[in-house]
Amino acid sequence: MRICSFFPSATETVFALEMGDSLVGVSHECNYPPEALNLPKVTKTNIPAGLTSAEIDRIVSSKLQSSEPLYDLDTELLESLAPDLIITQRLCDVCAVSLDQIQEAVDRLNCRSRVLSLQSNSLQGILADISAVAAAVGDPEKGDEVVSRLKERIDRVARKTRTLRMRPRVFCMEWVDPPYCGGHWMKELVEIAGGEDALSVLHRPSYRIPWKSVIDFAPDIIVLTCCGYDLERCAREAELLVRFEGAREIPALQNGQVFATDSSAYFARPGPRIVDSLEILAHILHPTMFAAPPLPKSFLRLDPARSLLVSSWKTGSVRASRYQRSCYADIRFAVCHQGRTHMERLQSDKIPANRGKHRFASISRWLTHGKERTISFRDMI
Fold it and tell me: 103 near 111, Cβ under 8 Å?
């Protein structure tokens, strides 16, 4: 069977079903597992690179209102790939090529491809979609096996949180500027993970939320799940939070309980890794009950109210023990200042170590544009 996937979670599902060798084409956003990166790309985005989140929101809103496509489909490549099965979605026109675009192309090319469209808006629906893909590729038993394992992991979290009396107020932000709450399955994930989310609507799309509603809710924890953003870009968005009126009075910012996530891998993708997302969230909400999942660079704790630095990336050798007061390092880091992000480098400079925690508390000296500043340095969680 020859399969063409038009959105990332479908690609991940096909690989989870051990049918990756049948994929002949994927969308430009399909980047997991790594094998997907080598497959022909049948789509491309019409959104320019390098825009701020506010600019992206304006362009997307304008294109949707004028019925302009957000993505282009390479019909010639699709015809040459001659897929037997095309997997797409009709849940969100912002996330992938629309079903109408694909159906029109199939009709125009006189293809005999079967089009399977997924539209899960809940955790149970995501599991059902995995089963639907398994049936479409001719291996429903493998689908049952994958779904059974995922259900066991969901139940493991739910059993621990079911009797919790104290549940933190959680705001999952699907977009920061302007603010959008989490959509579809996000409220469900928060509740299973042991939190309270009064801003999202269960199994309904994300929507633009008045900032006053966030202030009134007073979240204990803010989780940035910005759709399509990797961890580094998502972390940079945290700098925008402190500019909103009254933001510094929100408990989450006062207590350093703001988290960025790799939303290009988790939370926004309705596939097998949605359960990874649940486990990440459970750890963020209740770190003493749930160990951090072994998922490198999946999330990062931030402190935007107190720190200019919102993400850090080590490229050199950085070593410190509880017996050292300082060390030397070659470090690259991203700094957000006045809305602009700069990649800076500190090489062979003396860095005070946070004694006993194997973590650097601060970099006391660094230069940018000829000025001396003080910033915080936080390791990746």
Answer: no
Q: Are 193 and 285 in contact (CB under 8 A)?
A: yes
Beta-carbon-side half-sphere exposure of residue 61 (alpha carbons within 13 Å) = 9
Instruction: Check residue 292 and give its pLDDT.
Output: 95
Q: Is the pTM of this model over 0.85?
A: no
- Please count the CA atoms within 13 angstroms of the CA of 5 that sit on its side-chain side: 27
Residue 121: HSE in the Cβ half-sphere, 13 Å Cα cutoff? 13
* C-alpha to C-alpha distance for 263 and 269, rounded to whole angstroms: 8
Its domain, for residue 365, covers 309-376
Residue 33, preceding peptide bond in cis (omega within 30° of 0): yes
Backbone angles phi, psi at 76, to 5 degrees: -65, -45
Report yes or no on 337 lying in a domain. yes
pLDDT beneath 50, residues of the chain: 308-381
- Distance between CA 310 and CA 375 in Å, rounded? 10
Domain boundary among the residues 302, 333, 364 is at 302
User: Are 93 and 6 spatial neighbours (Cβ–Cβ below 8 Å)?
Assistant: no
The CATH number of whichever domain residue 99 belongs to comes to 3.40.50.1980
Structure tokens at 149: 């394992």
**Helices 123-136 & 140-161 angle (0-180, nearest 10):** 170
CA distance 67 to 32: 30
- Determine the pLDDT at residue 86: 95
- The answer to the question of residue 177 being in a domain is yes
CA–centroid distance for 328 within its chain: 33
Give the model's pLDDT for residue 307: 52
